[in-house]
Amino acid sequence: MGDAAAGGAGRSGGAATQRAAEIDAEVARLEAAEVVFGQFADARRTGKVDDPAMAEEFERVTISPGAGGMLLVPHREEGMDTSALPVDYQTIMKIVAGASQPVPAKDVSVELGRGTGPGQVEPVRDKLRRLTDRGWLHRTPAGRFTALPASAA
Q1: Least crowded by CB within 10 Å, which of 7, 32, 105, 136?
Q2: CA neighbours closer than 13 Å in the CB half-sphere of residue 19
Q3: Is the pTM of this model over 0.70?
Q4: Beta partners for 103?
Q5: How many CA atoms lie within 13 A of 86 on its CB side?
Q6: Do 135 and 75 form a contact (C-beta atoms < 8 A)?
């Protein structure tokens, strides 16, 4: 009976891999939507919703990484700098890099002007984790974040 269960698990491995790829693509689409929504909200707040520059930025975001299932935050490679990241991620990188010690997500959220509530901190924490997963930041065991040296790519 144990062998039958193991065989069944082996057969479903391909389906699980395919599902994981589908989830990754969906996450990438949601990342792109998050950036577009953030830009629209900022434009609305500043009264620039109908600004031609906003339309150009919308076009840039929808055809750049993140659109159509591509990664919005690329994996860090040799020679890459933060200019490869979307603007909001560049801002987070500057905050973390400018800190004298590892920073918690809550401090980054406050520095971004978002506040300390869970609904304000968790999206920032998700971005910090994404930067960590893609090789841009280091997460300490205590859950704080530090910048990696430039040669760590």
Answers
A1: 7
A2: 5
A3: no
A4: 145
A5: 27
A6: yes
